[in-house]
């Protein structure tokens, strides 16, 4: 699909929705009111360039909530209060502001809210530290050249890992090595595991075939949790590995990126981004569009935030900043040769200014020079 067809798809979808409804029901939210559980219907409306989630049907309050909000925010407006989350979560100060605003709403006391928000930020930093330590431990154990060929599953365990963090880390391992991954936190001979999978393999179905070795398990195609005796981990690893390799050839364990449209770098404009936004809201069943630009040059690659890759992309007489989350480890592999890149374009807001940024998804040596 070329860039014009993608934009036309966006306009058509928007026009059709505008003819049908001003707002739509997207789900429910379970809340506690005076100690009693209540289920609040969550509705949405698109007001200008903002997508609003709301706990009532009042279109007027939706428009009031949207007034003056920039494109970069997705807003939840519940019980007369606006909760906002940045679509590009790069600003720690912004996240802190959101945490503080939410705490103030819950407590009604500014001083108490500041204290709670600071404590939450402290907990988050501790979580990040634990996540990094587990990742470093796993990366030290795995030699991709020796350990990945012929291996369908990555199952690792430790007594040092916090069970509340291993799910996040498992996702990082899947992103890095593209293998269904289960990480197990051991306590007193019992392991609590959290797993993440790839699109080609149904993790829950695989665990179902291993249930004789598990104390319990649950989940779905892409994520699952298990409980297992420590002495059964090796047998479980062997069995799950065999199940995966029987279902998928080793060549099926290579990630592939689906491209929605091809264009030139000079076609990635603010107008084009506004057209792509017509396809929102994005999620699992409606992923962000992935655009491919061929034959670009990579310049000034660097690592930011200890693990993210930032670089300039040059082509067709223009250049763009780009960010590739959790890909700092490939810095040394970048060369000055022409590359084909896949990305989702976005607007980056910083210090009162905005610029187009490419959120990288994939990269390969250019097919044609």
Structural write-up:
The chain is α+β, with helices and mostly antiparallel strands and 369 residues long. The chain folds into three domains: 22-87, no CATH class; 142-253, Diaminopimelate Epimerase, Chain A, domain 1; 261-365, OB fold (Dihydrolipoamide Acetyltransferase, E2P) (Beta Barrel). It has helices at residues 3-20, 59-66, 92-107, 110-141, 144-147, 166-177, 203-208, 233-247, 270-276; strands at residues 24-33, 36-47, 50-54, 73-78, 81-86, 154-158, 181-187, 190-196, 216-219, 223-229, 261-262, 291-304, 308-315, 318-324, 339-350, 353-365. The strands form three sheets. It has a five-stranded mixed sheet. Helix 3 (92-107) packs across helix 4 and helix 4 crosses helix 6. The two termini are 22 Å apart. Residues 20-102 have low confidence and may be disordered.
Total domains: 3
Discrete helix count: 9
Structural class: alpha+beta
Alpha-carbon Rg, integer: 23 Å
Q: What's the average pLDDT?
A: 75
Keywords:
369 residues, alpha+beta, Diaminopimelate Epimerase, Chain A, domain 1, OB fold (Dihydrolipoamide Acetyltransferase, E2P), 3 domains, 5-stranded mixed sheet, 16 strands, globular
Helix and strand layout, with pairings?
Blueprint: H1 3-20, E1 24-33, E2 36-47, E3 50-54, H2 59-66, E4 73-78, E5 81-86, H3 92-107, H4 110-141, H5 144-147, E6 154-158, H6 166-177, E7 181-187, E8 190-196, H7 203-208, E9 216-219, E10 223-229, H8 233-247, E11 261-262, H9 270-276, E12 291-304, E13 308-315, E14 318-324, E15 339-350, E16 353-365
Parallel strand pairs: 3-4, 6-7, 11-12, 14-16
Antiparallel strand pairs: 1-2, 2-3, 4-5, 7-8, 8-10, 9-10, 12-13, 12-15, 13-14, 15-16
């Amino acid at each position: 699909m070329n860039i014009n067809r993608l934009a036309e798809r966006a306009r058509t979808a928007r026009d059709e929705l505008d003819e049908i409804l001003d707002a739509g029901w997207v789900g429910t939210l379970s809340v506690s009111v005076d100690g009693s559980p209540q289920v609040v219907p969550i509705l949405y409306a698109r007001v200008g360039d903002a997508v609003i989630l709301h706990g009532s049907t009042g279109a007027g309050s939706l428009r009031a909530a949207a007034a003056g909000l920039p494109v970069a925010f997705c807003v939840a407006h519940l019980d007369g209060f606006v909760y906002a989350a940045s679509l590009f979560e790069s600003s720690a100060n912004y996240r802190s502001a959101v945490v503080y605003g939410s705490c103030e709403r819950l407590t009604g006391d500014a001083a108490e809210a500041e204290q709670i928000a600071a404590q939450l930020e402290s907990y988050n930093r501790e979580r990040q530290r634990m996540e990094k330590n587990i990742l470093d431990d796993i990366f030290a154990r795995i030699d991709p050249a020796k350990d990945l060929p012929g291996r369908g599953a990555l199952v690792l365990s430790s007594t040092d890992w916090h069970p509340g963090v291993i799910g996040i880390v498992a996702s990082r391992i899947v992103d890095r090595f593209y293998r269904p991954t289960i990480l197990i936190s051991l306590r007193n001979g019992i392991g609590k595991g959290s797993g993440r999978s790839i699109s080609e393999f149904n993790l829950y179905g695989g665990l179902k075939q291993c249930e004789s070795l598990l104390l319990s398990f649950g989940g779905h195609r892409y994520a699952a949790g298990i409980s297992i005796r420590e002495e059964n981990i090796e047998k479980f690893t062997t069995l799950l590995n065999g199940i995966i390799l029987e279902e998928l050839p080793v060549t099926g364990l290579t990630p592939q990126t689906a491209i929605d449209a091809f264009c030139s770098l000079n076609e990635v404009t603010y107008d084009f981004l506004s057209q792509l936004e017509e396809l929102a809201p994005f999620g699992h069943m409606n992923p962000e569009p992935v655009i491919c630009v061929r034959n670009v040059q990579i310049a000034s690659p660097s690592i930011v935030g200890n693990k993210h890759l930032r670089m300039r992309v040059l082509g067709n007489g223009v250049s763009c900043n780009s960010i590739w989350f959790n890909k700092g480890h490939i810095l040394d592999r970048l060369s000055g040769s022409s590359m084909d890149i896949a990305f989702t374009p976005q607007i980056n807001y910083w210090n009162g200014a905005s610029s187009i940024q490419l959120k990288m998804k994939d990269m390969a040596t250019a097919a044609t020079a």
